Protein 1
Amino acid sequence: MSLVEIKDLKVHYPIRSGFWNRVTDSVKAVDGITFNIEAGETYGLVGESGSGKSTTGKSVVGLEKVTSGSILYNGKDITKAENRRKLDYNRDVQMIFQDSLSSLNPRKRIEDIIAEPLRNFEHLSKDDEKLRVLQLLNIVGLDADALYKYPHQFSGGQRQRIGVARAVATNPKLIIADEPVSALDLSVQAQVLNFMKKIQREFGISYLFISHDLGVVRHMCNNIAIMNRGRLVEIGTREDIYNHPLHIYTKRLLAAIPETNVNQRAAHRASRLAVEKIYEDQQSKYYDEDGMAYPLVQVSPTHSVALPENIAKQLASQEGEVQA
Ligand SMILES: Nc1ncnc2c1ncn2[C@@H]1O[C@H](COP(=O)(O)OP(=O)(O)OP(=O)(O)O)[C@@H](O)[C@H]1O
């Protein structure tokens, strides 16, 4: 059994219009996605803005009402509030947000911000609580003088590390990290990601790592799902996605990773243009008549792509993949 099993999850937002404010349509933010997260792994959920990643993340933490489908945590469906209560789910599953300035209360000192989940769930003595907060600050590489400061007195990278410390305070099993480093400079990104990895090793945490950037996800994730307009277009291991991408949408995301090596820039630009040309010429091959992704088809034990079966198998064999 996987730690988390997401099965045919749908989150549709009603659109109301007219004098009677009736529901006339819906935004299919998440439209039938299925994937599993194993204990101790980092699972990447990647797609452009608006593809439904945050809605998925919020559904897993229980912040979003699910339209249909299930989210099993240790085998229990946590889309039902009574199961969340029974399982101590709010303690076991935490979230790290992209924007640390607005997700950390500006009027509270760091000591109180990090202690908040402890106060909700652990009920420690004042001394034990302070000791625990100091340990957590230490884990994310911050000094004791941070205790009495406010969020605005820190850099973006430091604030994100405070967000990580707060998220791990209750020893969670799963952390939903929604674009945790997108707002940071490249050098600071690496620092925060390293802290997240260190904490994962120490505490055996699983991450659902949400990002629009396949470049960031590469060094973090064992398995990756690519999301496009509420559906999954490709699922695979890191090797499958980076070395044998099959869907044009995945190839476009890969081509969008900035090239840092100056000598490679011309070649990188040429391959990006080539991918864009394939996208323009062959879009209809990759999407159904409504412009939506097809259901996923398995092409190897670890790799699935959203294409008609014959095309999926043909592309996979061109890539030299073992067929399921
Ligand atoms: N509360 C809401 N009511 C109506 N539509 C919503 C709501 N929340 C999200 N949406 C819509 O659902 C779709 C998916 O949004 P979501 O925020 O999950 O995407 P995302 O991939 O996380 O993008 P971003 O990285 O920009 O947040 C978008 O079209 C968005 O406008």
Protein 2
Amino acid sequence: MNQFEQEALAYHAAAPAGKVALQITKDVNTAADLALAYSPGVAVPCLAIRDNPEAALKYTAKGNLVAVITNGTAVLGLGDIGALAAKPVMEGKAVLFKKFANIDAVDLEIDERDPDKLVEIIAALHPSFGGINLEDIKAPECFEIERRLNERLPIPVFHDDQHGTAIVVGAGLLNALALTGRQASDIRVVCSGAGAAAMACLEMLVQLGVRREQIYVCDSKGLLTTRRSLSAEKEVWAQDTELHTLAQAIVGADVFLGLSGPGVLTQTDVMQMADEPIIFTLANPEPELRPELVREVAPRAIIATGRSDYPNQINNALCFPYLFRAALDCGARTINQAMKLACVRAIAELARNSPEFGPGAIVPELLDPRLLATVCPAVVAAARASGVAHR
Ligand SMILES: NC(=O)C1=CN([C@@H]2O[C@H](COP(=O)(O)OP(=O)(O)OC[C@H]3O[C@@H](n4cnc5c(N)ncnc54)[C@H](OP(=O)(O)O)[C@@H]3O)[C@@H](O)[C@H]2O)C=CC1
Ligand SMILES: CC(=O)C(=O)O
Ligand SMILES: [Mg+2]
């Protein structure tokens, strides 16, 4: 184990173990306090909520409480490591909710792979929460799970790996295009990965003006082509081509989007790309190709990863705390496309308004304190304009 790995274990093991703890928000020092907090006083808000469910927002923590829910089937790029092993990631998401947007988040690792049962479990849990952040649930099950929960529940349900990633990729790409003098409608994109994150990112790229026919997608078996038998989600991206591999498709490409796993991109692939390529190697924790290896063969490339130890961190953490803050504050029952696009533009603009803006700073840093004050109002405004804000 190297020194960094030892540090990571020591960080998590330092007492108290893990990264999150609950906090009491009212005085509970005297018998009189107890009489208010518990019996008999607690019965009064219970009955108020029975008579008017909206009162839960006034008398409980629900309105500022988000569930971070996984079944551990696609944890980062580590794959299907199971619910329990996913807990450090989910605690990490809870930390980011609190740190960046003062949202209390509870991580729930549910040992259930069956999509029907998972939907039932999450639906049954929903009264406790103001929102649900689905995390690291693998494709294709994640698409159906999110859709059914959104149809059924009166609170926002958001699959972070799909939409959070798509928002930040969209923002990063807009700025990378501007910096390299490209138009979205002119570029050719090669994507490695055809799972939750990739599918949503590609739809976002199309929304931003990239032409569908200019997007080539690879899964673990190679290029998605009309000659292959594919799932409905993948079929949308199939190209009618004789090409089969990433190495073939990447010749002349302007953009590489990596949402797959480590080692998928080679230096030879990078050398085949257009001048000043845009290379987003976003697999976590180990990218498709390390930035220093990309740089060796493409010195003018704009490079992003999902990690905090390289510049240009394209990670859904740049948006999910603020999207949920906005949704909770304005009582949005869903996080719709208008809110997502407002988030893309706000993040992109924030980076452009920074003195550091350039190839090494195409998105704001995760710790940028301006994110809360700029992204949230933009998303709230979009929620109001699109009629989903209820407060
Ligand atoms: N930076 C960020 O913010 C984020 C990064 N990610 C990263 O994206 C990756 C995928 O996550 P997610 O979409 O949630 O997971 P999924 O399990 O839903 O999808 C994984 C996809 O990667 C494909 N894949 C696996 N190995 C290869 C390979 N060797 N070559 C090409 N494709 C391959 C799979 O192919 P097949 O369909 O054939 O199984 C599948 O399409 C992870 O590494 C994750 O860390 C995800 C979300 C956010
Ligand atoms: C960042 C993230 O959500 C992932 O890699 O899965
Ligand atoms: Mg994730």
